[in-house]
Amino acid sequence: LEILVTVLNKNDNDPVFAQPNLSRTVPEDTKLNTTIVAREELSATDADLDTIYYELTTTVQDTDGYFAIRGVNNPEIYLQKALDYDKFNLTTLLLYARDRPVSSPEPSNTATATIALVLEQSDTRPPWFRPCTLLHADNSVCISSPYSGRVNISEMSTEPLLLQPGPLYATDPDYTINDRIVYSIVGGNRDEVFSVDADTGNLTMNKIVTSPDSFLLQVMATQVSNIRKYSVATVEIKVINRSLHPPYFEKGIYNGTVFVGLPQGSFVYQAGDPSTPLVITAMDEDYFPDV
């Protein structure tokens, strides 16, 4: 008597990852669709020889959608959304391997791999002149106000010029790189009257100014390791007559009148003349009678 026995394969084995824990460093300027972790490193095996189904999730808030797998049966991880180091600089992904589809009513065996991704800041932004005002929520653009200063006509200053709103100063906004900045004057410097210190940004005079015409300098801040990353700031230097006299008030004492119950911003009136607003004026003999 011959008896034919067929042994059925019971689904009693979990999928197995060769490397259940992986870590990668990802440059911030990685191009979209670039492979982050190859399929060969992430594929799971199953002793039951079942088809493996994969699912990728993230454990860090606000990092959804940046990374994805190629397909339900292809665990290769690729970049799906442009990275921004200022939004997040690390995340942890969980890759699930199942021997049944997620929607299957049959029970499935599951394995989990953990992938830690650390972002590396890239040199993506040019120098910022400080102080400046951020225009976008992602901190990608910062606009500085023009600088201004003044020099006396026919006088030579040996000290760095005082500027508003502050000294010439630029920084690398890619702060983990923090490239060194060098300064140069690229426009508006008639007769080479001014020079700028390449390292400090201090403006100094090379010669006296004999004309009352103002200067509108363009000063460039350039990153040392990447000359294509630069910014240009405008510096207005006004040429004025030297101030020999201090300003003075026309009166030693001003008397005014205010009325009870008036709202904020109401006029103060001259004492004894409730119809005329109180005006306080000063004179300066250096500019008399024009100012």
UniProtKB/TrEMBL annotation:
Q: Where is the signal peptide?
A: none
Q: Which GO terms describe its biological process?
A: adherens junction organization; calcium-dependent cell-cell adhesion via plasma membrane cell adhesion molecules; cell migration; cell morphogenesis; cell-cell adhesion mediated by cadherin; cell-cell junction assembly; homophilic cell adhesion via plasma membrane adhesion molecules
Q: What is this protein called?
A: CDHR5 protein
SMART domains per the UniProt record, alphabetical: CA (SM00112)
For this record, the Gene Ontology CC terms, alphabetical, are:
adherens junction; catenin complex
A GO MF annotation of the entry reads: beta-catenin binding
Q: Which organism is it from?
A: Dasyornis broadbenti
Where found, per UniProt? Membrane
Q: Keywords of this protein's UniProt record, alphabetized?
A: Calcium, Membrane, Repeat
Q: Which InterPro entries match?
A: Cadherin (IPR039808), Cadherin-like_dom (IPR002126), Cadherin-like_sf (IPR015919)
Task: Write one Pfam family the protein is assigned to.
Answer: Cadherin
Has keyword Repeat? yes
Could you tell me the superkingdom of the organism this chain comes from? Eukaryota
**Where does this chain mainly localize?**
membrane
Q: Give start and end of each Cadherin domain.
A: 18-129, 145-249
